[in-house]
Structure formats: C-alpha cells, structure tokens
Amino acid sequence: MDFSEHKNIFLQIRDWLVDQILIGKLQPGEKIPSVRELAADIEVNRNTVMRSYSLMEEEGIIENKRGIGFFIASDATTQLQRIQKREFFEQELPGIIHKVEVLKLNSQDLAQLLQVIQSNDHENKQ
C-alpha cells in the first residue's frame, strides 16, 4: 500500500478497505485481518490500524466480535454506497461541475463520458 502525504494514514487504510468491500473482494460476514496482521502487512503502527477499524465500526461498516475479530457488517455494501454517494455529491461533484463550466464542455463532450459509463454498466450486468 502506497500512502499519500495529503491524507491521514488511518483514513487511507479505511478508504482502501472500503474499496475492497465495494469491489467485492471483501464480502459481508467475512472476517478481515486482525489489527496486528494488517499493521504488519502494510508496515504501520497497530494504533493506526486500530484507529481505522474504530472509525469503520462507528460507521457501521465492520463489527467487532470480541475474542474472534472484526467482520464486514451484513449491510456494509449498502451503507458504503450511501456514504460514498453523499460524499461524491457534496465534495466532488461541485468541482466537476465547475470544471465543466470553466472548460465550456458541451452536451456532445459529456455524451462521450456517458457512453463510457453505459458500456461499463452493460459489462457489469453480464
């Protein structure tokens, strides 16, 4: 895992785990690596991983089964999609809209983007 200097490491770990859930590499009900295992694998302090796990537990993404470990919550995918969509609309979309306006992109320019999105949707349904 390559870390960026522009974001806290514990948030980058959380984001990486979220991506793993959203792309289906981690499934609801599945056990995730222990704090110690993940910290050793990605070469960070255990407290940093624990901070990521605590945040994800607060968000309802993972559950701690005492003595057994951390597991992906049964509704994690739905929960994450809701969170990610809200963050996209609040934080990223305004910047995209601004860029569209500044670059004076027209409907033909954006139609090309929509074609890419639609072809991805079609591939994902098969």
TrEMBL record:
Stretches assigned to the HTH gntR-type domain: 7-75
Pfam families: GntR (PF00392)
Keywords: DNA-binding, Transcription, Transcription regulation
Alphabetical list of SMART domains matching this protein: HTH_GNTR
GO MF assignments: DNA binding; DNA-binding transcription factor activity
Keyword DNA-binding applies: yes
Signal sequence segment: none
Listed SUPFAM superfamilies: Winged helix' DNA-binding domain
PANTHER family membership: GNTR-FAMILY TRANSCRIPTIONAL REGULATOR, HTH-TYPE TRANSCRIPTIONAL REPRESSOR YTRA
Name by which UniProt lists this protein: DNA-binding transcriptional regulator YhcF, GntR family
UniProt source species: Algoriphagus ornithinivorans
